[in-house]
Specification:
The chain is mainly α.
């Protein structure tokens, strides 16, 4: 039975990662062939970095991802602190509302936000672009930040905050020296998760972006309407490696947090 389960796991991993491995290999292919590897070259990566549309879209994506992640982390941290101080029933209700953007299909969220921005655009002269895209990304990033921070509150002794004040700390000092260090692993994890989701989001970005400001996934989609060129393989390979590095950092942060919790217990 164990051998069968291991075989099943290997087949699943092959099914998931062999296509990505093939894509990375052919991003170094000298010819445009999709089936024959004729030689090693870095020309497609050079062409990729000389493509102004791709570089501009990449910069836009990084700006949006960083801005949305930072704002979402601040809002999510404040929201998590407020939710943690609630009673059981209101807390459960608020958490259910918080989870809705995660459970909701992305296309529903994207269309809903688009209609909301159209409503305000007609009255406040708001154009689709950086602002609408940033608000959309913050909308679906905040719940992930909250979900990463809330378990840290559950792991923490609820009387530490009051004990610090009894020993002479002000509420701000108690938060800074007691609460913040305890929830910091969750804040970092939430930031990394928000950044990762913002970096590769397509559906919501597609409905909330404008002609003057587009992210990398949208630029890739517009290019794949024609024949896919090997420089797209190079771009996909770079995106995969970037996401992989972020996930490794996220897992390391989670592991350190768990080890710290085990040592305390």
């Amino acid at each position: 039975m164990k051998k069968l389960s291991k075989l099943y796991m290997v087949l699943i991993l092959l099914f998931l990662y062999v296509p990505i491995f093939v894509l990375i290999v052919f991003s170094f292919n000298e010819s445009k062939s999709r089936s024959v590897f004729s030689g090693f070259t870095l020309d497609w990566y050079k062409r990729l970095f000389n493509n102004r549309i791709i570089i501009s879209s990449l910069i836009n994506t990084i700006i949006i991802a960083f801005a949305a992640s930072i704002i979402s982390t601040i809002l999510g941290t404040l929201a998590a602190i407020g939710i943690n101080s609630m009673r059981k029933v209101p807390k459960a209700m608020v958490m259910n509302v918080t989870n809705m953007p995660i459970i909701n299909p992305e296309i529903v969220t994207g269309v809903s936000l688009m209609l909301l921005f159209v409503f305000f655009a007609a009255r406040m002269k708001i154009e689709f672009g950086f602002v609408t895209l940033l608000i959309a990304h913050i909308t679906f990033d905040v719940p992930y930040v909250i979900l990463n921070i809330m378990p840290k509150f559950r792991q923490m002794d609820p009387h530490l905050f009051e004990a610090a004040q009894d020993l002479g700390c002000s509420p701000f000092q108690s938060f800074k020296k007691i609460i913040l260090p305890e929830i910091m692993p969750g804040i970092i994890s939430g930031f990394l998760m928000a950044f990762t989701y913002s970096l590769d989001d397509f559906v919501i970005s597609y409905f909330t972006s404008g002609p003057g400001f587009q992210t990398l996934p949208i630029a890739i989609f517009s290019m794949t309407k024609k024949r896919v060129k090997p420089d797209m393989y190079a771009l996909s390979a770079l995106i995969f490696v970037s996401i992989l590095v972020l996930l490794i950092i996220y897992n390391i942060a989670q592991q350190k947090s768990e080890d710290k919790t085990k040592k305390k217990s």
